[in-house]
Specification:
Number of helices: 13
Strand order of the largest sheet: 5-6-7-8-9-10-11-12
CATH topology of the largest domain: TIM Barrel
Mean pLDDT: 97
CATH superfamily of the largest domain: Metal-dependent hydrolases
Shape: globular
CATH class of the largest domain: Alpha Beta
Helix content: 25-40%
Radius of gyration: 20 Å
Strand content: 15-25%
CATH architecture of the largest domain: Alpha-Beta Barrel
Number of domains: 2
Bound molecules: N-(iminomethyl)-L-glutamic acid, fe (iii) ion
Order of helices and strands: EEEEEHHHEHEHEHEHEHEHHEHHEHE
Number of strands: 14
Distance between the termini: 12 Å
Length: about 375
């Protein structure tokens, strides 16, 4: 790819190279050069800015149904309490495998059009063994970062302890071979989510089954999620809407990434967490869309970047890093999220001269994943 006006490599830091070219072979970067490089097939970037493709490290793409009325009610003052997950679970159970696959593909394609080149995808709208397994299978058609989220909420009609035993036993056995990660929604005082003891049981069972750990934590209130994630060595704790000083200190001394999801604060009218406080403490911060029908139905990483800059205190450069390199770190991957010899040639082309335009021009669809022939 030639005639790149500005190449953002994330190598090291943001790594800006002006007037660059990339030599790509079999989907892998083999050289970073000055513009004017020779090659068999030439893609002309036309002086545009090229960045590492966005890594969306937190999505719930496999679902059916619509909750726009719930969103409208929230915008009119209703609170978010995670009860709507039941509505999506009913619609998802009722959908056929072909329908769910087509819905997931459409959302994946939408993500590509927003510059996302790699997705993590969670199950979690099945909440029974057969449906959770089906959701993991469908997710696996689109990514190798599949997350088993049987512990999304306790479904109605089943005692909590019984459901936790199901998740840690037969459901995990059915889903672990299809997944890389296990996740749990941990909240201190939610009738739907899991408390610290329940979440610990789920994560320890997942780890024993060979899965890496992720946590939905501190979304609805300050609570045990962040510290549990750090204690158990989770790759990432996501949301982090309500953080105490002890949470920030725990994250700062750990390898656990704090994944911020500003689309959720936007769509639930919640306060935005202070990303500056995390960065000042030395915490690695990632940004992701959390694309899901309840709290953040967006596949637009540029929108997430703009929110993080305007509402969370990140600079535009920090936000771009968090949505690429930071998110790759949240998935413990070193083949994506940066541009260097040997990395995957997962690229987003911006219809703009610099990456600053992602936040500077909110709502404008500037980014697109480069699809190599
Ligand atoms: O990441 N917090 C839990 N799970 C999702 C929301 C699920 C829903 O409301 O459908 C989230 O925000
Ligand atoms: Fe989520």
């Amino acid at each position: 790819m030639d005639n790149i006006g500005l190449l953002v490599t994330n190598d090291p830091e943001l790594g800006e190279v002006r007037d660059a070219a990339l030599v790509i072979e079999d989907g892998v970067v083999v050289a970073v050069e000055r513009a004017g490089a020779q090659g068999d097939e030439r893609i002309d970037a036309g002086g545009r800015c090229v960045i590492p493709g966005f890594v969306d490290s937190h999505t719930h793409l496999v679902f059916a149904g619509d909750r726009s009325e719930e969103f409208a009610a929230r915008m009119a003052g209703a609170p978010y309490a995670a009860g709507g997950i039941r509505v999506t679970t009913d619609a998802t159970r009722a959908a056929s495998e072909d329908e769910l696959t087509a819905l997931t593909r459409a959302r994946r394609d939408e993500a590509l059009r927003a510059g996302i080149t790699h997705l993590e995808i969670k199950s979690g709208y099945g909440l029974d063994v057969a449906t959770e397994r089906r959701l993991c299978e469908i997710a696996g058609e689109f990514t190798d970062d599949v997350t088993f989220l049987g512990a999304h909420v306790v479904p109605p009609g089943i005692p909590r302890a019984e459901y936790v035993a199901l998740v840690c036993g037969p459901m995990l056995a059915a889903c672990a071979p299809l997944a890389r990660w296990i996740d749990v929604f941990c909240e201190p005082a939610s009738p739907h989510a899991f408390d610290a003891d329940e979440a610990r049981a789920v994560l320890e069972a997942g780890r024993a089954a060979g899965l890496g750990l992720r946590v939905h934590g501190n979304q609805l209130a300050a609570g045990p999620g962040v510290r549990l994630a750090v204690e158990l060595g989770a790759a990432s704790v996501d949301h982090c809407t309500y953080l105490t000083g002890a949470d920030v200190d725990a994250l700062a001394g750990s390898d656990t990434v704090a994944t911020l999801l500003p689309g959720v604060e936007f769509s639930t009218r919640s306060p935005y967490p202070d990303a500056r406080r995390l960065l000042a403490a030395g915490v690695t911060v990632a940004l992701a869309t959390d694309c899901n029908p309840g709290t953040s139905y967006t596949s637009s990483m540029p929108f997430v970047i703009a929110l993080a800059v305007r509402e969370m205190g990140l600079t535009p450069a920090e936000a771009v890093w968090a949505a690429t390199a930071g998110a790759a770190r949240a998935l413990r991957r070193d083949d994506i999220g940066h541009i260097a010899v040997g990395a995957r040639a997962d690229l987003a082309v911006l219809d703009a001269p610099t990456h600053l335009h992602l936040a500077y021009r909110p709502g404008v669809p500037l980014a697109r994943a480069l699809e190599l022939a």
